[in-house]
Amino acid sequence: MSALLEVRGLCVAYGKVEAVHQAALRVEEGRIVTVIGPNGAGKTTLLAALMGMLPARGSVSYAGKDIARIEPEQRVSRGLCLVPERRELFAAMTVEDNLVLGAFHRYRKSDPTIGADFKQVYQLFPRLQERRRQLAGTLSGGERQMLALGRALMSRPRLLMLDEPSLGLAPLIVRDIFRVIGGLRESGVSILLVEQNARAALQVADYGYVLETGEIAVEGPSADLVSDPRVIESYLGLVSGGAG
Amino acid sequence: MNSEIALFLIQDGLTNGAIYALLALALVLVFAVTRVIFIPQGEFVAYGALTLASLQLGKLPGTAWLLLAAGMAVAIVESVQALRFGAVRRIPAVIFTYIIIPGSLFCLAWWAAPQKPALTLQVLLALLLVVPLGPMVYRLAYQPLANASVLVLLIISVAVHFAMTGLGLVFFGAEGSRTPAFSDAHWKLGVLTISGQSLWVIGTSLALIVALLLFFEHTIYGKALRATAINRVGARLVGVSPAMAGKLSFTLAALIGALSGVLIAPITTIYYDSGFLVGLKGFVGAIVGGLVSYPIAAAGALLVGLLEAYASFWASAYKEVIVFTLIIPVLVWRSLTTHHIEEDEE
Ligand SMILES: Nc1ncnc2c1ncn2[C@@H]1O[C@H](COP(=O)(O)OP(=O)(O)OP(=O)(O)O)[C@@H](O)[C@H]1O
Ligand SMILES: [Mg+2]
Q1: How many Cβ atoms are within 10 Å of B120's Cβ, its own excluded?
Q2: Best label site of A201, B146, B286, B288, fewest CB within 10 Å?
Q3: Has this prediction a pTM greater than 0.90?
């Protein structure tokens, strides 16, 4: 099986300081791949570079094509989608308008199936439907996470990149979110998941990478990583299921 | 002053104020989406008025040549960029948009101008010639430095303003022109005489404001512009490119400017450099709204119009001074009342 996303020798720098160094990773079609690592390891930087929001060196091939030099907007219309760590919602617009904008590139192509996706997102997050006329900036933290995920789904992604989707959520909602992520794989979406919550991430993922100070330190199928002593010690150890 | 004069001045003030309000809205829009303080707005007013005036004389307007030249320049810039990024497939679309379309508009104007078509057709033709200059100006002058600071963008604006004024002189000459009124009708309402021209101006302005409102509330592109104004990063992540948003907001601003020019042309004599003062009055209105609030900007612009009407009655030699002095109390008031709300942006 050929990979949907294949990254080789990716280096990202802020000025002179390199935040990601020679990273290589693959995401196969229909799989969940997770990147875990301590604070400041470069996970957010890695995703931003893959989305084209930061300049980077190295090769990034997506769906068999080199996308290293194309703009984020074009990546979106090819099915790449990022839910960023800071969510970047449109605070002064309604929940519904946020979702509409998620499908912006599909409106441009007059995609007739947008309506069905609205229904699906509202089914997934009934809370969003209740609050669809409310301004996004007035949502609770958890509702914001739902909206960020919902907005991303409206773009109908082929590869969805999630930056800490469980950040600041109550355990019950975390479980919901991970259930949604698992469900997305069933519907054929490939996922690149960055998480502090290593236990939950490795549970849902097929394959995992450990990023430490900008470099990939360990990688392997999730089942192997869970039993890797280094991973257990640093990421699964005493904190059971809590955010690091 | 008797009530007849007072009412007349109000009518006069509201008529000019409606135009300033349109310009103020365009300034707020452009600033919100691109962070550009759009000083050349006034040049679009002058171009609109002078283009219509040329058409009324049955002459090919200078803007037709300008459109050809600007289109050519954009086509060159875009093609060079496409070649550099190895996107050769984009070149036919570039040639179509920036050479074929302006070329066709040029031919249309060439053919239609001597026939002196009906006024509505002339207005339409004038808009078709002036409005495409908006996105072209954005592409040539602003897009290469779109991420620069507000100050750098302001300096670009000043440069574009001088360039466009100069081009105005080249293409339209130094004489001023005034077009005939859209309507010679007058209605007596008690002591007040309402002129058809005032109704045209106010009615068109209102219609345009309503149209803009509908555009921003109900269309996907309107929402995309609002989204860009609220959160640029978020907008990029859903696929709204800043370049697209910039060009679109400049198109709207050029449309508003050119239409204002068409509306103001029968009221005052417009020279190639008259746009600046007109635009500046819209700018005062926009400043009242802090360059962020559409309704306050429009209200401020109406106030400017009224103030100007009364100033020209009481102290006509000082009318511009009085109008622009309004900025000082406004700035003081704003600096006293504005609390800086930190939004988590960028
Ligand atoms: N805009 C920036 N300018 C300079 N340095 C930055 C910038 N953004 C991030 N960094 C640095 O790059 C490194 C990687 O940051 P990044 O946000 O990618 O880490 P992370 O793995 O996502 O961490 P966390 O788990 O805390 O979210 C950090 O040392 C950070 O200080
Ligand atoms: Mg991070």
Answers
A1: 9
A2: B146
A3: yes
